[in-house]
Each structure stands twice: as structure tokens, then as C-alpha cells.
């Protein structure tokens, strides 16, 4: 086999409106910003990747702008001219660049897409092989309004689009949040699983009071109730045993997963390819969870189609995803970014079978949404000329 090298790496920032405000404890999103990566190889194959976070710098340490800058200024010079095989390129990257997990994930996604296309196999087969052809996908209710959330959940159930819901809380006093959650769970009853994500907003003292109340309300899972740095507190909340506790922001790849597992600091891990630092790091993190008897959940950074399907390829190779996934990112956006939209059916995302990621970006959408597109200038006519 002739040696294939990396010829060029291009990054494009897109700003895409959301279908409604998405209210988290740390930010209210009116749009999502997505960094698209195009990786061109010496054999003419192009791989696509995505670097996406939530709310600028309010969620994680990398912003869309820093992901682009890291790739343009530091990743590209390291990788251009080097071997395009994903493992060797990623090893090279890790030698030269510390942290920057979101940027590394975007690059590994593009490398695996290109390699899959080259070998004629889906990315899931490069990761050991697919165990699932479809993945259950929940929907996040985060309009900020209880009645609107119930109406949205009813609509999703009626359309058979989702059978489980995650509620974003932590912005209001906890008693108000618990009442909001209890009202929604009462309205939905046994027709849907209801989980909550606090996004680190509570102190341990608040969480100790709130968890039994959420359990009484019928909540199945509480995600990252306290700050990501407080693993001992997470362990104490997990030991309470009244409701399953999930780690999200505390997970930054296999090493952080190992220390959480050793400290019995979660019942469930949210596996996110971006936070983990790439698809193979996410798989290693899942392996640590499996070895420790910690349940798995397929998380999202509310990515567009590329990041969502990259995550799906990883999750499809995991044995049991006891709590399903939240791979609904593209459904939160007003614009379709893929030539062929992802297939969502009966509460699940269907994995594509084509080689690589199995998707292609929609060129017109990229042209229309890229932040650096030429601005249209408005010509103001003098009044007398208008007549
Ligand atoms: O899990 C998070 O914290 C981030 C994200 C995932 C779903 C959603 O609505 O927000
Ligand atoms: Mn979360």
C-alpha cells in the first residue's frame, strides 16, 4: 500500500440558529456554532470532522474560535505531510499538543472518515465493529417554560420521535426546579423516562436535599449535579442511592474516568467524543466504565450531523448503553447541514452503512452559514431617486 499523507486541513466556523432557545444553567443558546474540519489527503480523499461546544466558553475550556485557531496554527503544521493513518497521526498530535480535546476529536473524526472511505468500510468497523444498527435517542426539554416543555414532550411522543426526556435545571432555586420536573413527570407518567441535567449548578448541600425529592418525583437519572472538580461530593451523592447519578463535565477521557471509577463517584458515565479527546479515547473511557460496573450513556455537545454521526459510530460498538443516547443535535438546528439528513425513526437514530462516517456535508448550507461569508451590502437610495 502506498503511503498516504495529509496534504491540507481547512476549518470553517458556521453559526446555525436553534429551533427555540435552549436554556441550560450555564447559558441560553439561540444558535449553535460549529467548526467544520476538511482534511485533504494525498490520495484525493477528503475526511470531515466537527468541533462543537456549548455556549462559547461557558461550558468547557475550548471555544469554537479556539478550536479553529488550535487547528489552523498548531495542529495543521504538525500533521501536514505526515502519515494519514488515524492512530499514527493522533499519536503524533498527542506528542506535540497537550489538552485541546475538542480540537483533537475534530481531527480524529476527519482522519477516521478519510480512512473509512479509503478502505471502503464505515468508521464503526475501524473501531472494532458495530454491535447496534440503531441507537435510542432522547430529547432535551429546555425551553425554560413548564407548559411549553409538556406540549413539546406530548408532540414528540405523538410523533413517536422520542420516548425519554432530559430536563435542563439548575438555573432557578432548586425547589422551583423540582416542582417544574415533578409537573412534567406527572403529565407524562409511565409513557416516558424523565432525567435531569443540573450542569454543575448545585452545592453538595443543595444536591443532598434535591436528590430524594427528584427520586420521589419519578426521575430516573441526575446528571452532574455539582461542580466537575468535586469527585468526593459526587461519590457521597452516589452512595445515597436514591437515584442514579451520572458524571458528565467531570469526564475528560480515560484518566478522569479511572479516578471517578476508583472513587465510586458515579453510577453512569456520559461518554462524549469531544470531551474525551476523540473517538478512540471515548472507547477507552467506555472500557473503564464497563470494567468498573458503571453504566453507559451516549452524550452530545449538541453537535451537528458530522459530530453526531461520529459519536454514533463509537456508541454502536459499545456493548450496552443502559441509558441510551442524546444524539439529537441536528434536530435542534433550523438548517440541514448534510446532503442526506440523518435518519431518526421510532425514538432511534439509524446508523448509515456507507463508508467513512457515511454522510456528506451540504455545500450550500456551509456557504450560507459560514461566519466568514461575504456580507451583503445594502444600497440606500436617496429619497428623490425612490420617487
Ligand atoms: O449534557 C450536556 O450537558 C449538554 C447537552 C446535552 C444535551 C443537551 O441538551 O445539552
Ligand atoms: Mn450534561
TrEMBL record:
Keywords tagged on the record: Aromatic hydrocarbons catabolism, Isomerase, Manganese, Metal-binding
SMART domains: MR_MLE (SM00922)
SUPFAM superfamilies cross-referenced by the UniProt entry: Enolase C-terminal domain-like, Enolase N-terminal domain-like
Endpoints of the signal sequence: none
Cofactor section: Mn(2+)
Segments forming domain Mandelate racemase/muconate lactonizing enzyme C-terminal: 147-244
Pathway(s) where this gene product acts: Aromatic compound metabolism
PANTHER family cross-referenced by the UniProt entry: O-SUCCINYLBENZOATE SYNTHASE (PTHR48073:SF2), O-SUCCINYLBENZOATE SYNTHASE-RELATED (PTHR48073)
Recorded family membership: Belongs to the mandelate racemase/muconate lactonizing enzyme family.
Protein name according to UniProt: Muconate/chloromuconate family cycloisomerase
Gene source species: Sphingomonas kyungheensis
